[in-house]
Structure formats: C-alpha cells, structure tokens
Write a structure and sequence with these properties.
This protein has 368 residues and is mainly α. The chain is 74% helix and 0% strand.
Amino acid sequence: MTTPLASIIGSGFLVLGPILDAAYGKYAPLVMALLCVGAYLYGAAIRYNMAVIGTTAASANVLSETLETAASWSLGFAYFISVAYYLNLFGAFGVSLTSVSDPLHAKLLTSAVFIVILFVGWTRGFKSLEDMEYVSVTAKLAIIAGLLIGMTVYFLDKAAGRELIFNPPVQTGLSAVTLAFGLIVTVQGFETSRYLGADYDSKTRIRSMQWSQWVSAAIYMTYILLLAYVFERGELKLTETAIVDMMAVVAPILPVLLVAAALAAQFSAAVADTSGSGGLIAELTGNRLSPRMAYALLTCVGLFLTWSADVFEIISYASRAFALYYTLQALIAARTSWTQQDRYRSVGFIVLAGLGVLIVAFGQSVEG
C-alpha cells in the first residue's frame, strides 16, 4: 500500500488545498470528495483489468492489446509532464523561504535539477538514488501527520471562538467543472499498483490500490475540511507555494517542515517517474530508444514546459495526460466486461471513458 499511497499523497497535497479553497470556498470539501470518487472509479477500471485480463482467453485479443499499448504510450507521455510538474514545484518551494523567491530563480533551480537528474540517469542510473525515495516517503508522511495535528488545533480554536469562515465560491457553472477536470493529477498515483507485478500477485496489488485510495481519500478530506473554513478570501495570494504562507499562520515551524518535505518528495517522485518512463519507452520501442535517450527527451520536454508555462498550467497538462491513460484503461475494461457478458459494468466503464475524454478536451488550469 505504501508505494501507491506515497505517489498519491505527493505534490498534489501541497497545492490542492489552496487551489480548492480559493476557487470553491465553502464547497471545497465537496469538490475534493468528487475528485476522490472519480479517482476511485478509474482505479476500479484498472483493478478490473488487473483481475481479468490474462486470466481468460476471451479477454486477450488484438483490440485489447492495441489499447493496452496505447495506454502504455500515454502513461509514458504523462510521466514526461509529471516530472516537469514535480520539479517546477521543487523549484518554487526551493526558493520560497529565501530572498530570491521569484519565478525566474525558481525556474533556474528547476532547470538545474533537470540537468542533475539527466546526468545521474545517463552516467550511473538511478539505483544510487533509490534509498532517498524510502527516506522521503517516511519524512513526508510524518510531516503531513504533524501538519494535520497543527491544523486540527487551529481549526478547533477558530470553531470555539465562532470564527469559522464560509467563503462563497469564485468558480461556478462550467468553469468550476473544467477547473476540477484540470486537477485530476492531484489524486493520481494509484495506478502505480498496476506495475508492481514483478514483486506482487494481482490480488495483493488490487488490495494495495484500494487501501491506498481509501487512506489517501481520508487524509485529503480531513485536510480540506480543516483548511477550507479558517482563511478569509483574499487573505493570502494564490501561488504554487501558498500552503507555506497558510501554515505560517497555523504554526511557525510548519513552513520549514513543509518545504523540507516538498523538496524531498518532489525530487524522489521526479526520479521515480524519470526512471519509470525510461524503462517503459525502451520496452515499447523494443530498445530502439534506450532509457538514456528517453531521459534526454524527457529533460528537453521538461525544460520546454518549465520556461513556457507556469506550475498551474503544467498541472492542467499533466491532468489531461493522465486522463488519457485512464480513458484507455476504461475502454479496455469496457471491452473486456462486454465479452464477459457483464453489460451493466461495461456501460459504467464506457461512461468513465466518456468522462475521461471530456477531461482531456476541457481540463483548465488555475488562474494564479
């Protein structure tokens, strides 16, 4: 469970609270719940594929294999964008408590880390960095626990003084829906269980995905409920590091801890996705494109996104890329369940695929 949980409770945790609070006000917990439900349903499609495909002859045909290949390519592309997302957050948080906290220096730091990761991947591979991932996961979850405790005390103090704030939403109607579409990446990561087959059987991987989504949903909902009703509209400027300023109000030590957690989490997540994309693309191309070449291509894409878009735009791009992957997985599940005479489930998966198409087409970024 820890592997997908660490992937879900990653970058999204740092930016999602301020975004939902600023855009949806008192309805932020409702939007968070919808994101968690949507992610769980897409997880259900992937879990169905894990359980059924390969166990029945009826599920194995050219169409399923073609869709699976397309899904793998879409995931590899999504990794490219997600690494840019992680490292741009790394840059923003890396300079957030310094005297050079501005977009230029954040982008320079991001670019430098891209070069470091490319150098390590090209010359030594990422085995030497794997231990950092385990340490960062432990530190991140511990700091999040401390964050939630501090927020609980602050929330209860506000509630006791009848000082809770119920801001009206800024985003309504279609714009509210398309913004939510652009945030799906913040609850992404559960699909990691799908690719742990070398170490675990399908039943274990299915349970790991379910438990990670249940636990992450509980953490996210607690976090949003504690955050959404204690800050006045406009009290803090919405930026990618707004959570740092918010937590400075809660407890002076929290900003330092959050930045430390952010740097460790973003770097380890970027290394994991860079490594994963290199292996995936090498496999899909029959090693015609080596992992090292994939790392170089990823770095070029990442640097282009870094200097041509802001973090909120990259979040939207990453959401649409992962939505494409989830759409293809839902189509595979729909086709397979139809051949298994499970018509109702097949219709449900088709609806999920249709929702995925809408996310890909209309997901919008936050206006900072």
